[in-house]
Amino acid sequence: MQHGNDGVGLLTMRSGPGPLPAAGPRFEDERLIKGKGRFVANIEAPDALVAWFVRSPFANGALTGVDTAFAQDTDGVVAIYTAADLDLPDQPATRPAGVPGMERPMLARDRVAFVGEAVALVVAESAAQAEDAAGLVFVEVDPEPAVVDVVEAAKDETIIHPGAGTNVAFEQRVVSGPEPPDGLIDVTVNVEHPRLAPSPLEGMAVLATPINGGLHIHVGVQSPHELGRQIAGIVGLDESAIRITSPDVGGAFGMKRFYPEYAIVAKAAMMLGRPVRWVQPRREFFLSGSHGRGQRHEVTLSADSEGRVHAARFRLLTSTGAYPHRGVMIALFSRLVASGLYDIPHVDFEILAAVTNQTPTAPYRGAGRPEAALAIERAMDALAARLDMDPAELRRRNMVAELPHETATGAKLDSGDYR
User: Fold this and answer.
1) Residue 398, by phi and psi: left (phi above 0), alpha (psi -120 to 50) or beta?
2) Beta partners for 67?
3) What is the pLDDT of residue 15?
4) Which residues are within 8 A (CB) of 125 and not within 5 positions of it... i.e. 6 or more apart?
5) Taking a C-beta distance cutoff of 8 angstroms, is the pair 302, 185 a contact?
6) CA distances, 206 to each of 209, 218, 243, 251, 264 (Å)
7) What is the reported pLDDT for 211?
8) Fewer CB atoms near the end CB (10 Å): N or C, the chain?
9) Are 264 and 118 in contact (CB under 8 A)?
10) Angle of CA points 356, 100, 357, to nearest 5°
11) pLDDT at residue 17, rounded to an integer
12) Residue 402: CB partners within 8 Å, gap ≥ 6?
């Protein structure tokens, strides 16, 4: 990033040697830094009600009751909904993780699977009234041991979703390329990619307004058309009856796509015939907004004494969190770019994804590619140490030299000068 004398940011990019291309001005900066952005919380809706979610304080267990009696009598409360009141269909697992029994309910119905899972929705005249009433909703759970380690989860000793009969959401092994020669030198590294909680300036937020038998939904999201289709299918409207407006989005980083809360708020607006707004507080965002990373790589590189890598073997373990909706996609992206910028003829890649009693994972800042890059580069450093070779020289000897190039994992590299 370069900055001109007038303070307007100029974005510049380059992909190889030669002079920098001419920079273009960024027109959005001044409005945003002066506080003139228009986010979901800024949308004027004078008669809008405010939604507040009641969430599970337990990571795993049977949901035995949701007592709303005290909250119903609180000032300003218009409605309180549980799963039985809304009767919304479950969200199926995203392919290829299509294990029956791992579908995600919009509101927890019979069980809870992670701390922060939505159990009920309070709708009131003001945010303060909604929050106060939510504190008077009593969630009754018969707690069970929580499984938070993917290795333990894969043993299936404690089944998180009894209907599935297993915690393993996806398994795959792909072997490609010619068999490597004998007598190679092996080195193995284990790389842990800890979970993280994205923290955009704006958390999740949605305003659903009934209009002409349909809905106008303001939501800070990356995929408005896809979201419209998903909400329509869940609340029972034709896709043409839903208009999605995405105003300014205070950061997304890959994780602002569909969430059950969007469909729940939309359904509440339809049932009440009034606009309903939900703006997620920061603490709740960390609990129930999707998490990133959460992978474990075991990488074995096999090279000759000159440092030429002939084979790479990967074992990737990943926790998708409580529901395997987008978490498996991240592992597949990691597989695609597993060999990085190196010309490795033979690749053996194995994936095991399992559900755990944690917040579900989703794409974040590169969606599996940064994890893959760290894993292969750690392995290259370890191989250089084993061969007593300069790590930079080892990389030069193995980098893709001729482009376009298709890696053993199927990634098509079409441009660049890696060396």
Assistant:
1) alpha
2) 138
3) 46
4) 49, 50, 76, 78
5) yes
6) 10, 6, 13, 15, 10
7) 94
8) N
9) yes
10) 10
11) 53
12) none
* Residues 140, 63: Cα–Cα separation, whole Å: 6
d(CA 408, CA 348): 9
Residue corresponding to tokens 């498996």 = 328
What number of residues does the chain have? Answer: 419
Consecutive 10-residue runs of the chain (419 residues): their mean pLDDT?
Answer: 33 49 81 89 94 97 96 95 95 76 95 97 97 96 96 95 94 94 96 91 94 95 92 95 93 87 97 96 87 94 97 96 89 94 96 96 89 97 98 96 92 88
pLDDT of residue 415: 87
Are 296 and 352 within 8 A, CB to CB?
A: no
Pairing of strands 242-245, 138-143: unpaired
How many Cβ atoms from other residues are within 10 Å of residue 301's Cβ?
27
CA 243, 290, 197, 264 dihedral sign is: positive
What Å distances lie between residue 60 and 65, 162, 225, 383, CA to CA? 14, 12, 34, 42
Token pair belonging to 210: 């009934």
216: its two tokens? 């106008």
| 228, 277 contact by CB (below 8 A) | no
Q: What letter would DSSP give residue 18?
A: S
Phi, psi values for residue 86, rounded to 5°: -95, -30
Residues 203 and 216: their CA atoms lie apart, in Å, by: 20
Task: Report pLDDT for 24.
Answer: 82
Query: What element of type H or E holds 376?
Result: helix 369-387
Q: Which of 147, 61, 55 is nearest to 107 (CA)?
A: 55
Quote the CA–CA distance of 100 and 108 in Å, as a whole number.
17
Give the pair of three-digit tokens for residue 355.
Answer: 């559900």
3-state secondary structure of 246: coil
Residue for token pair 């708020």: 265
What is the pLDDT, as a whole number, of residue 234? Answer: 95
- For 332, the token pair is 């597949």
Give kind and range of the element (H or E) at residue 147: none
Spatial CA neighbour of 262 closest among 228, 290, 238, 287: 228
95 is written with which tokens? 């392919």
pLDDT of residue 25: 83
Angle at CA 115, nearest 5°, toward 358 and 206?
A: 95
- CB under 8 Å to 197, separation ≥6 — which residues? 285, 286, 289, 291, 292, 359
H helices, E strands: number in the chain: 11, 20
pLDDT of residue 367: 87
